[in-house]
Amino acid sequence: MRISAALLLFVSCQTVFAAGSGLDARAEKTAERLRDDAMRGSRAYEIVESLTTEVGPRMGGSEAYDRATAWAQAKFKALGYDKVWLQPVTFPVWQRHSESARVVSPFPQRLVLTALGGSESTRGDLRAEVVEFADLEALKAVPDGTLAGKIAFVNLKMLRAKDGSGYGPVSNVRRTGASEAARKGASALLIRSVGTDSDRLPHTGMMKYEDGVAKIPAAALSVPDADLLANMLRRGKPVTVEMNIQAGFTGSKTEYNVIGEITGRSKPSEVVVIGGHLDSWDLGTGAIDDGAGVAITMAAGALIGDLKQAPKRSIRVVAFANEEQGLLGGKAYAEAMKDAMPSHQLGAESDFGAGRIYALYAGVSAGSRPVIEHIGTLLAPLGIALQASGGSAGPDLGPSVPYGLPWAELQQDGTDYFDYHHTANDTLDKVNAKDLDQQVAAYAVLAYMAAETAVDIAPEPPKTQP
Amino acid sequence: MRISAALLLFVSCQTVFAAGSGLDARAEKTAERLRDDAMRGSRAYEIVESLTTEVGPRMGGSEAYDRATAWAQAKFKALGYDKVWLQPVTFPVWQRHSESARVVSPFPQRLVLTALGGSESTRGDLRAEVVEFADLEALKAVPDGTLAGKIAFVNLKMLRAKDGSGYGPVSNVRRTGASEAARKGASALLIRSVGTDSDRLPHTGMMKYEDGVAKIPAAALSVPDADLLANMLRRGKPVTVEMNIQAGFTGSKTEYNVIGEITGRSKPSEVVVIGGHLDSWDLGTGAIDDGAGVAITMAAGALIGDLKQAPKRSIRVVAFANEEQGLLGGKAYAEAMKDAMPSHQLGAESDFGAGRIYALYAGVSAGSRPVIEHIGTLLAPLGIALQASGGSAGPDLGPSVPYGLPWAELQQDGTDYFDYHHTANDTLDKVNAKDLDQQVAAYAVLAYMAAETAVDIAPEPPKTQP
Question: Which of B53, B201, B425 is facing A231, going by the closest CB pair?
Answer without folding.
Answer: B53
